[in-house]
Amino acid sequence: MNIFVPMLAAGTLLLSVTSCKPMMNASAEAGSYPYRTIPGDSLHTRIYTLKNGLTVYMSPYRDEPRIYTSIAVRAGSKNDPAETTGLAHYLEHMLFKGTDSIGSLDYEKEHLELEKISELYEEYRAAEDPEKRAAIYRDIDSISNVAASFAVPNEYDKLLNSIGAQGTNAYTWVEQTVYLNDIPADKLEQWLTIEAERFRNPVMRLFHTELETVYEEKNMTMDSDSRKIWENLFAGLFKKHTYGTQTTIGKAEHLKNPSIRNVMNYYRTWYVPNNMALCIAGDFDPDETIRLIERKFSVLEPKALPAFVPPLEEPITKPEVIRVKGPEAEEVVIGFRFQGVNTRDADLLTLLDKVLYNQTAGLIDLNLNQKQKVLDAGSMLVLMKDYSAHILSAKPREGQSLEEVSRLLLEQVELMKNGEYPDWLLEAAVNDLKIEQLKLYESNRGRVEAYVDSFIWGMDWQQYSTQIDRLRTISKEELTAFARKHYKANYVEVQKEHGTPESETKIQKPPITPLKVNRDTLSSFAGELLAMPSKGTEPVYLDYRKDIGFREVQSGVKLHYVKNRENDLYSLYYVFDTGKNHSRKIELALDYLSYLGTKELPPEEFSRELYRLGTSFSAFTSENFVYLKLSGLRENFPRALRLLETLLQDARPDRDALEKLKAGIRKERADDKLSKRKILFEAMSSYGKYGPKSPFTNVLPDHELEALTPEELLGEVQNIMHYTHRVLYYGPDAADAIIQELQTVRRYPAAPEAPPAADPFPELEQTENTIFVVDYDMTQAEVIMLTRDAIYNPSEVPLISLFNEYYGGGMSSVVFQELREAKALAYSVFSVYRSPKQKEKHNYIFSYIGTQSDKLPEALGGISELMQELPMSPELFASARNGILQKISSERLTRTEVLFNYEDAVRLGHEGDIRRQIFEGARKMGLEDVQRFHESHFRNRKHVMLVLGKKEELDMDTLRKYGAVRELTLENIFGY
């Protein structure tokens, strides 16, 4: 359950298909339903409107026996009442709590208690005296426990898990709330039954514990510098519209004074079928499915909707610079305001954004990133119904002012206004968008996301699906004129400085009595739902020798081949069994390569040629592997491959580029030490596993970095090309053609070298409980508990999978129910038995909880109790086991998934597709097996606890109860 906030990075939110006039279709069969289509639509979209106004989007796509679903409500935080902001988001949370049927054991009795709670919240809102408020809250807490005795918490999640759903979640943003599921195709009727009931009559049960979860989410956002940037930028761009005057999570004072009545009024106002869309893509029969949907969802009654009249924003006539402070790295973000998504602005912005930034050959790419004038420069669009925003962002290099960063970003806009970009870039940008679209529509999720956008924006599917054609009509003259007209001194700039932010009052924890969790019960609805018959789907496993073509390019160089029979896109990978553990220079060398050209093509021209060919090249380096990836359009593959090979073999050294790269690395290292996520999940986690010398700290010290020469780095690239390696190919060309191309473009060594095999970083044995604490200015405390266990054994994978599903892997798991649902101790919490990525490595128990500092004692106590005693629930176990069986039965690995599944199998020592063992094992195992696993692997184990938080607010006495406390500095964990 998330608040959707676009990342400050590249991307456009509007894509397309093909053009043609829409058609109405209606079968002559009695009882059929008319629907709209677009001739030539590659998604074969059907759009229905039911009698009650519910819109249904369908895309039959039988790639695997699953269906991706979204139920979209055209209402978000912009519709929140000004006096109770955050309401749309809170209602989203409550839609997971069930109805008078889902999750209720005796609704008549439960309803009486819930009504008392609702009345008490109204009194609580009206009361001003702190003692009176505290007394009312005690009554709320007491009655909530009575009401909870009649409820089955998380029954919605258990039901979805039982039928094999994946990705069960939801998100809220400014003008939408969207509910997500990925289900087995044979469970469509069960899913429709659940969802129709879910939206019919949601019940506000377990309200005060869920409210505390939202408090946690609010406190979590207070620690987010990106949230500070976003809220201030939108407040500057939209001084009248609720896009800027309100936030999705809401004001703290509103969250402290909730109203169940207001939440239900919001539901009754906006959650009506004529304001909702059901969007599905996958393996289903459209005619049969629409009959099911109509039968299930006809219980929802339409209602007239209030009109939302967007306020008219005043023109921005001069730059507004807003300065905010936070603990993370400095950054500049500049926003321009435009008309909404249903105007011509959206098309022009989409193309303009790609010309500015496409991660290869845009103005920002070549003039700022490749020339290393700033760090991480980018551009993105935020397209919304009433207004849109175009956002530029970048981080400063060492010693660079934020004003200089701003000037450099705005200079790229000036180049757009002057038409200083090549004519061919427009066509290449449109082709790039087309490729993005093809990739997006390879997945059911991508298709459904397009439907959701179309519906939320109120954009006809024909209009949505013809954007590529419209973009092709835009001339350079029109685009340049648009830039001149709209990009003036009319922007809002947020300068995010490093420093102590203005203090925000965190929401303190209220006294909550842990709720009794009725795990071993089912509502009547759940029992009937689970008894519903379904066709059943047999699992299909990979047979590597049949599903992958294994060929030899040259001695020591293998080709693993899977044919793409769907479109003209290809992906090619060079995979080397060496990485950062074996060379501290290899990642830097491949990064350096991205700033170079060849004898024939200088760096800028090389990047432009790649983009002109519709090709992307990237390199990824892990501890023990290197991946070089080339992808794009089939027709340009031979030329793209030659470009890549020429770069790998004949890159021209550039000393100035290397010196800038070194300076950038020094700045990025300093910025990493300001990043909360980098500190906890990478630096501290690595320290907990390995100690001070780890793969994470295995970087060049400053004096070695300074001494590096271009020749050394290019030598690293040439060295790995002499190692034995694999070529992975997924695409439309035949294997023989790929081998011929590879043999043509490179002279392979007669006897390729075997890459170094030694792993120089042994994992530490844990002999005593240890707590490592790092001081960081933040509202919450975040904790990771690590316990090293036995060496990986493939035979244990089935039980590990079942245990994780039951214990701590999802919203219906024991850990989630105990620590979030019953005790409201965290917004995010999980605990899993984590397997390594390679054989001969150790398994780990990995537990995480993010909580308010004043809840730390209860949170640690809760995790520790679960490590010692496993709550036993036959009902929850049945849900976990059914979930695994249903997911594997309906899962089909395709495309590059086949190739990388085989890579994983080899690295972990699997003899075949491990899913076969998981499925067969899960069918035979019982709850007692899970219990024995917990007893042998979790109880009385030594652990390393990693705590990140504001030291003065951490309860150090509590921490000492769990082991010896040692404070670490950033230098300790980063190694520099």
TrEMBL record:
Tell me its cofactors. Zn(2+)
Biological process according to GO: proteolysis
Matching InterPro entries: Metalloenz_LuxS/M16, Pept_M16_N, Pept_M16_Zn_BS, Peptidase_M16, Peptidase_M16_C
Domain spans labelled Peptidase M16 C-terminal: 263-431, 749-881
Q: What residue range is the signal peptide?
A: none
* Residue stretches making up the Peptidase M16 N-terminal domain: 68-110, 591-686
Report the superkingdom from the record: Bacteria
The family note in this entry says: Belongs to the peptidase M16 family.
Q: What is this protein's record name? A: Peptidase, M16 family
The protein's organism comes out as Chlorobium luteolum (strain DSM 273 / BCRC 81028 / 2530) (Pelodictyon luteolum)
